[in-house]
Design goal:
By secondary structure, the protein is α/β, with parallel strands linked by helices. It contains 12 helices and 14 strands. α4 packs across α5 and α5 packs across α12.
Length: about 350
Amino acid sequence: MTSAVNPITVTITGAGGQIGYAALFRIASGALFGPNQPVALRLLEIPQGVKAAEGAALELVDGAFPLLASVDIATEPAAGFDGANIALLVGSRPRTAGMERADLLAANGAIFGPQGRAINDHAADDVRVLVVGNPANTNALIAQRNAPDVPAERFTALTRLDHNRAVGLLAERAGAAVADIAGVTIWGNHSTTQYPDLSHATIAGRPALDVVGTEWGRGAYIDRVANRGAEIIEVRGGSSVASAANAAIDHVRDWALGTAPGAWTSAALPSTGHYGIPAGIIASVPVRSAGDAAGVAANWEVVDGLDVDEFSRARIDASVAELVAERDQVAALGLIPGA
């Protein structure tokens, strides 16, 4: 990314939608890169969403944010990703009634393939990509494989929302502060097969499973985290918005500026074989980042050496199997070059 002297260009797809709207004002206020780093926002929308994006742009001007260098709206990926340092791929095709999984993957392939090619051809050399739109892991895979000139590790998918849910629900159960929670990991897919793992988690320094009990921590807790999105839809009548935007900001901020010393979080990255996860798929693992003051060398690093017991192995393998099946489906559809 550019230095603190120059603006960092952040492109948000689906910027006229609810998650994009919730994220824009926090990014402009400095929540992404801190109080001294200007940002230039690029709002990429389909024609039907342009009016909503234009309204958001008007409000951003009215916010008079000192760190907001500019706001531009684009409808073509080439223009939207031109010079982008950060790409937040929020917009995606939702699953509708009667739509088969293959239909959903094909519809999103038509979105994320061209976006990957545009990022490859037009984004800044240091671009970093976070896919939020679901199915996030496989959408990220499609974009990454269509951007052969961009290092694979620059493409990530959002499981920080699952991680934050896992931390919040654990703290609630234990009657502890969120700040007392450490070592939670989300493994696998951003789906109901995900595995929120407390094997290495602590609460105020004590093993989490000792505090909340193994029966709950490896039973009801897993189901609660995995189905939290459905719970929110049932309660509020709509999907997660503010918490998803917050998680996207958390993900990019920690990636760029670094995680706390000794701490880790969760992110879905292209696998290189860590923890027996097949290379190439984009799976959630425990990660940390050293960050970089100039923002040009920040990278996620997988936390190595964690013990994986039999229970965890089975859970991880089940989620990974789903990701492999999705990869095979999009490969059969011709959505990932070279497959």
